[in-house]
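Final report, closing paragraph on structural work. Over the funding period we assembled a curated collection of sequence-structure pairs, and we close with a single example.
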Amino acid sequence: MSDDAPAHPKSRGAARRAQRRGPTMEDVAEIAGVSRGTVSRVLNGATHVSSASLAAVREAMRQTGYVVNESARSLVTRRSGAVAFVLSEPPDRLFEDPVLGGLMRTCTALLGAQGRGLMLMLAGNPDERERVLHFARGGHVDGVLLVSMHDGDPLAAALHGTGVPVVICGRAPATGPLMPYVAADDRGGARLMTQYLLDRGARRLATVAGPADTPGGVERLAGFRDVLGGAVPDGAIVRAEAYGIEAGRAAMDQLLHGFPDLDAVFVASDLLAVGALQALHAAGRRVPGDVLVGGFDDSAIASATMPPLTTIRQPLSQVAAELVEVLLELIAGRHPSSRVLPTSLVRRDSA
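Its predicted structure, as stored:
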């Protein structure tokens, strides 16, 4: 039978019989009037199939209820159809930080549209990192999205050694193998916010920086320094221990103690800014009347603070889309370059 011959679907009775006993690829081929090889090529996404045969196979699959056996396919293709979303943080960070939750939701939807599943894996301690490596070495995932990396974390280099495609969210570590990444322009966004606060009249400008072992902690502080140069007063920089509300409150308390006459503060994430606003309120400082406050991310929480937060918008949906695109290119054997996406200022009431 010719693979490209027009389809001649058989009776609906054959389709019903196939449904009762469980449809096979042979049933689909018989009802579509094509060879088993043509059905296989359609299921594997081949392009050299006639439009008539393609339509007939799809109709036969619909009539019989045939679905691809992914376990059997993976034995042939050596692909699992799964991608790991690896978070190098404690599990509660995922539920506290709307940035991470938003990234994961968008990546899940985009991969689902490609017929792939997303698997969340934690890698905040040595045992969890070893579990991730075990899955990668065992072929359980086709690729890895590595999120919230910390300097000195050995996981990126270890994953690279497994041969599994890896894309990093945020700038890649300065040391170790070269790996593709997708990042927002943290440094440029920090420059934008710092200059905006100065333009709004700030004269005693401080910052709550992110942890020093994270790309955002390094890049956003660098952008702050780019604008102020050598004019950063002693005590005007405090690093938060983590990206969280409590850490932001503690860092703001420290700033108020060491730099009490500050009139503006650039906070390195919206979540940190929530804590900073709480500390300012507890200290009797009015925002923006006494202190201008600017954040970073434009996550969902930014418009819900009191007052609503002026912040830097990361294009999170685009970051997720580019992460998925770069990873799929790697899985396909191509060599995509890293990507840095522009940020923008969002003005609200806090500054």
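The chain has 14 helices and twelve strands. The domain at 82-183+317-338 is CATH 3.40.50.2300 (Rossmann fold). We thank the funder for supporting this effort.
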